[in-house]
Design a protein that fits this description.
Elements: H1 2-23, E1 47-54, E2 60-67, E3 78-82, H2 91-96, E4 101-104, E5 114-117, E6 127-131, E7 141-142, E8 149-151, H3 152-169, E9 178-183, H4 186-202, E10 211-217, H5 223-228, H6 230-236, H7 242-252, H8 262-275, H9 292-301, H10 305-308, E11 337-338, H11 342-347, H12 358-364, H13 367-372, E12 392-395, H14 401-409, E13 413-419, H15 427-436, E14 441-450, E15 453-461, E16 465-470, H16 477-480, H17 482-494
Parallel strand pairs: 3-6, 3-9, 8-12, 9-10, 10-13, 13-16
Antiparallel strand pairs: 1-2, 2-6, 2-7, 4-5, 11-12, 14-15, 15-16
Keywords: Carboxypeptidase, Disulfide bond, Glycoprotein, Hydrolase, Protease, Secreted, Signal, Zymogen
Main location: secreted
Family: Belongs to the peptidase S10 family.
Length: about 500
């Protein structure tokens, strides 16, 4: 009897060891990033990078960079981050916004940028997956050229397949709360992907994702509302006169995005001319024009600090001189059909203002960096660029308002945030469409605070839908206001009031 009990105890111990091993199965070793070129310290958490193959033909290889939480990665939320474009790499967010590092220019020409730990990295409170999507963007590629013709619905389907396969590779994170976040054209990527995720959950697709909600920053949403947001914004910001505002309203009858008369078009052209010299991504920041940049920057620096404080960032290194948002050229909201990528726009002699992505290019195209983060050989993908012209992209999902309404009505939490000095996708549009859904206001317009200061304003609706502004921020909120961005981010993930 004693021998039998001993055997049974031994079996139970072995079973428990086996179950522990299964439940703590770790990420693939081949994906571990052991060192990050340009950074000389100890990584504050584990990093992984590599490819996940998706698509019916198995030819699409989507690249990801995964940063484990610096807090408690076994329980902290996992967040998928998507940049917009369409056609822009999510390393945009990694390098310039909320990644684990701040990037400083190399000391010598052609050298590697110097990396420092970012005190406001979103990996302080969550694990973050930076995904290059769709295939053809960033380090992602396909063996089939036809895969570079895509659109909203196909991108959402592929990204959902990526997530299912990613969580199979990293099963230890499957029970963690999962969120999707992004900005600009990811105002389309995020809700369409979230809808695919929810459909999968409801259909019993395995693995079952622990999806809790999503965030969209200065996001493209609805053709009419986005298109009509510019005029109220420039008027409210004092960029056009009261007289011109009245004239535009009178001639256009509130329809600013699709002028139907010559007189309306003429008034809108006058508005465009008045704001032409501004940095549309943040009207408080200087606009850089090639060789003129130095003079503008110097004159800006000479301004008294009280004049500059609102637009400044707490980052120890300068805000970059470029970013990409789909609302430029002005009054060009996203419509159904082909959406021109940024390089395609520039080939038409349309030059987006304030463009310079030198730091990201220098770092990501460095051979050491490519090897360290497991990028495919140069024979497969020759180089990285922040936004590609190598895809043909169709906007085929229509307005995002119905997606948001469907998701929030099912109980998924949504945070719609806007830098309030972004002329590219103005907060006036985001405020208008969140209000248009018709939910009851449960948290009336009020200030929210960060570091003891008013950081912006928020309005909360029924069904866990929240609209939030960030005072003095431009198009890419975590870049302009990193402390404030981390504050609202961690509160939202934790389900706390902002």
């Amino acid at each position: 009897m004693v021998k039998c009990c001993s055997s049974m105890c031994l079996c139970l111990v072995l079973l428990s060891v086996f179950l522990c091993f299964v439940s703590t199965q770790s990420a693939p070793e081949s994906a571990i990033v052991t060192q990050v070129p340009g950074f000389s310290g100890t990584l504050p958490s584990k990093h992984y990078a590599g490819y996940v193959t998706v698509g019916e033909s198995g030819g699409k290889n989507l690249f990801y960079y995964f940063v484990e939480s610096q807090g408690n990665p076994s329980v902290d939320p996992v967040v998928l981050w998507l940049n917009g474009g369409p056609g822009c790499s999510s390393f945009d967010g990694f390098v310039y916004e909320h990644g684990p590092f701040n990037f400083e220019a190399a000391k010598t020409k052609g050298g590697l940028p110097i990396l420092h730990l970012n005190p406001y990295s979103w990996s302080k409170v969550s694990s973050v997956i930076y995904l290059d999507s769709p295939a053809g963007v960033g380090w992602s590629y396909s063996k089939n050229g036809t895969d570079y013709i895509t659109g909203d619905t196909k991108t959402a389907s592929d990204s959902h397949e990526f997530l299912l396969k990613w969580f199979e590779l990293y099963p230890e994170f499957l029970s963690n709360p999962f969120f999707i976040a992004g900005e600009s054209y990811a105002g389309v990527y995020v809700p369409t992907l979230a809808s695919e995720v929810v459909k999968g959950i409801e259909a019993g697709v395995e693995p079952k994702l622990n999806f809790k909600g999503y965030m969209v920053g200065n996001g493209v949403t609805d053709e009419e509302i986005d298109g009509n947001a510019l005029i109220p914004f420039v008027h409210g910001m004092g960029l056009i006169s009261e007289d011109l505002f009245k004239e535009v309203n009178s001639e256009c009858n509130g329809n600013f995005y699709n002028p139907t008369s010559e007189s309306c078009y003429s008034k809108l052209a006058k508005v465009d001319k008045l704001v032409d010299g501004l940095n549309i991504y943040n009207i408080l920041e200087p606009c850089y024009h090639a060789t003129e940049a130095v003079n503008i920057t110097e004159s800006y620096i000479r301004l008294p600090s009280s004049f500059r404080k609102l637009g400044e960032t707490e980052k120890p290194f300068p805000v970059r001189k470029r970013m990409f948002g789909r609302a430029w050229p002005l009054r060009a909201p996203v419509r159904d059909g082909i959406v021109p990528t940024w390089p395609q726009l520039t080939s038409l002699q349309l030059t987006p203002p304030c463009t310079d992505d030198e730091l990201a290019n220098e770092w990501l195209n460095n051979e050491e960096v490519r090897k360290a983060i497991h990028v495919a050989q140069k024979s497969v993908i020759s180089s990285w660029e922040i936004c590609t012209e190598g895809i043909v992209y169709y906007h085929d999902a229509g307005s995002m308002i119905s997606y948001h309404k469907n998701l929030t009505s099912k109980g998924y939490r949504a945070l719609i945030y806007s830098g309030d000095h972004d002329l590219c996708v103005p907060y006036t549009g985001s405020e208008a469409w969140t209000r248009s859904i018709g939910y009851k206001i449960v948290d009336e317009w009020r200030p929210w605070s960060s570091n003891g200061q008013v950081a912006g304003y928020t309005q909360g609706y029924d069904k866990n839908l929240t609209f939030l502004t960030i005072k003095g921020s431009g198009h890419t909120v975590p870049e302009y206001k990193p402390r404030e961005a981390l504050d609202f981010y961690k509160r939202f993930l934790a389900g706390l009031p902002i």
